[in-house]
Amino acid sequence: MTDRKTRLDTPLSRRSILKGSLASTTALGALSLTGVAPLHFVSQAWAEEQPIGNFPSKTSGPSITLGFNVPQTGAYADEGADELRAYQLAVKHLNGEGDGGMMNTFTPSNLTGKGILGKKVEFVTGDTQTKSDAARASAKRMVEKDGAIMITGGSSSGVAVAVQSLCQEMGIIFMAGLTHSNDTTGKDKRRYGFRHFFNAYMSGEALAPILAEEYGTDRVAYHLTADYTWGWTQEESIKNASEALGWKTAAAVRTPLGAGDFSQYITPVLNSGADVLILNHYGKDMVNSLTQAVQFGLRDKQANGKNFEIVVPLFSRLMAQGAGDAIKGILGTTNWNWSLQDDASQAFVKSFGQEYGNPPSQAAQTCYVQTLLYANAVETAGTFYPPEVIKALEGFEFDGMGNGPTLYRAADHQCFKDVLVVRGKENPSSQFDLLEVVKIVPRKQVEYDPSIFGGELGPYIPAS
Amino acid sequence: MDRSSARNDLLLMVVFTAAVLTMPIWLTPIGAGYPDLLQKFAIFGIFAIGFNILFGLTGYLSFGHAVFLGVGSYTTVWAFKLLSMNILPAVVLSMLLAGVFALAIGYVSLRRTGIYFSILTLAFAQMAYNLAYSVLTPITNGETGLRVLRDDPRVLDHMFGIEVGESLPTPELFGLRTIGYEGFYICAVFLIIAFFVAMKITRSPFGLALRAIKSNQIRMNYTGFNTRPYTLAAFVISGMYAGLAGALMAVTDPLAGAERMQWTASGEVVLMTILGGAGTLIGPILGAGIIKYAENIFSAFNEQSLHHTFSFLPEPLQNAAVSISTMFVGEGWHLTLGIIFMLIVIFLPGGVMEGFRRITRWARKPPAPRRAQKIQTAG
């Protein structure tokens, strides 16, 4: 009911309420008589605020529930654990506890620190196990049993794509966590899915010029690629970007997710004529493949008269921690790093550090930001009604979230912001100080036309 | 004798049907009365019933049953993509194709018995999983999973003039949705039919032959009884049950992933059957329910909800209780499942059903001689 009241401020609202209530009574009547069929028929007459997902049944109480769906087991478990910490911190800040973190630097912000639309924020958690099936089961539980109004999380693009399309069907907004595949906001984009994290295409565009600068333009690359949507698109993006600068690709080999032992994939690299190994791996996979590649002595070798190099296009501090010394001098890109000196990043690092005793990872940052962005969109829209919240997020420009001025592009629900090119530090000053920022690549350089990946967002009001 | 067992079966059937159809009501107090989990109960119930026809009756322990689950799922999604969003052609085709796979795998594997049979089926399952995961990516879409797309051909739907709207088409049964409670009732009807068929098989002469194979196959062979056709038939039926379960998984959620074929999925159904009670009719369904409940409910607990549960305790005790119990919930739910499994296998080798039998036997026994016995042993 409060949702209705807030809508009274807008000039159209009286008419729409009349229309809405009239339509919903007829529709309810029709529904109870014949089941499903007439929904099609009246969908046009339902001008505003028909029930979608858990709206309004689960948004009318004194509190609302968010669903945090992260990998707690499997190859991406470390990222998942850090994501969960960030979500809990975001909930605290939204409810006005703690020091507020990036809520103090975020502009333009409608956040109040009194929950969302005055309702206390609660949350439920689930384990995606980095498997599409388990992730969807877990998301369904959150929606059907716990009454979650928004689902967020995921540390694998396969899972993100699967959960995102489920959320589209159920009419629940999905704020993707760490997902880097071009498909998430490319060919598999959805109206109800939003991604703050950058993608493989941006990594390629940002990283390739630096690679050419450091290693020359006549290199031959060998790809090892995690065999799923993220790996495929990252391989493609890096290939395209590096080949445009004159590199050649010797081979691209797919490895199963969570393989553990990569030695059989690394041995053929040396005789392939390649002089750069590109590891399209993430999480524990990347830790294992990089450590094994270094143990095999690849980096001490010479090939084609040049030093053999290893590149990890998507980097994170958690992985750097896992890989230890192997990470030193390796180039890659990252969405965000805790060593950034802007006010927002500093505020977030301080807040996170006080709570948990260690600096946040890039996964934590993107998840924290996504939660705040959703809350802010609801405040801006003045309602939990999903289509209005989506419209508030589409084309939203903001700053003060640690990535500089950022745009949530309406055409594909992808955030556009600066990309960090980083390198594993040779002499880390602490166990967390593992990455040094080589270059902050400006947003302009990584922008692209949304039509290159195809896909369509779909309707604001899901068929039911 | 015959008539009374027939009456018992009828009673069992009626009680079972009533219990399944009222699941949304009596499972709500324990937090399991929501559509997705109810669907899982029904689907894995079917899977376990089918597995029990092979393992419970003939004693052949297959470690590769997830293959048929996966085949069922992939066939269903392909049927959605190529033929129609109506679930009937999809379910029928899935069962048939799973049957064909079972015939092929069974024909080879059933040449061996015991551990060799188990290893053979495991090898086939692992082979199928790896094929689906990487080699057959054009058919299975690998790790990402096979999904229904808007611009799929759907020949039958086009023939009958059913066009897709702006959003993704969803599976349906002549206008009935397959998600939420409707989806559960569709699965529940399949479960009841599956249970009925399994009961008929168990009570039939064919079922008797299967149990005879379990008790002593060599003696059967010596009496001139050719057991191969019987075991193969049991294997194929069991595979078709798994195919049906796989089809229903894709019906309630039109996505098929290779992880459904992983050996862990094959192991899961073995656990379900043993946990509930191999060879019994109800046992496997109970086992499936317990495992799915543990997976979905225990894994969802987090520290916050534990603090809430133990809020009646004073602060230090509450913290201690929470820190001990976090080991068993959330990401530690496998530990809980492991402990339950160990306890049941050690103390109730016949599964949960043996527990029930012991309780009923204990309740029926007059208490006096029991007490006397106790005194005797104490003395």
UniProtKB/TrEMBL annotation, chain A:
It comes from the Bacteria. It holds the Pfam family Peripla_BP_6. GO terms for biological process: amino acid transport. Gene3D superfamilies: 3.40.50.2300. PROSITE patterns: TAT. CDD domains: PBP1_SBP-like (cd19987). Residues 63-425 form the Leucine-binding protein domain. Keywords: Amino-acid transport, Signal, Transport. PANTHER family: LEUCINE-SPECIFIC-BINDING PROTEIN, PERIPLASMIC BINDING PROTEIN OF ABC TRANSPORTER FOR NATURAL AMINO ACIDS. Belongs to the leucine-binding protein family. This is Amino acid/amide ABC transporter substrate-binding protein, HAAT family. It comes from Bauldia litoralis. The lineage of its organism: Bacteria, Pseudomonadati, Pseudomonadota, Alphaproteobacteria, Hyphomicrobiales.
UniProtKB/TrEMBL annotation, chain B:
One of its GO terms (molecular function) is branched-chain amino acid transmembrane transporter activity. It is a multi-pass membrane protein. Its main location: membrane. Signal peptide: none annotated. The keyword Nucleotide-binding does not apply. One of its GO terms (cellular component) is plasma membrane. The keyword Lipid metabolism does not apply. Pfam families: BPD_transp_2 (PF02653). Keywords: Cell membrane, Membrane, Transmembrane, Transmembrane helix. It is found in: Cell membrane. This is Amino acid/amide ABC transporter membrane protein 2, HAAT family (TC 3.A.1.4.-).
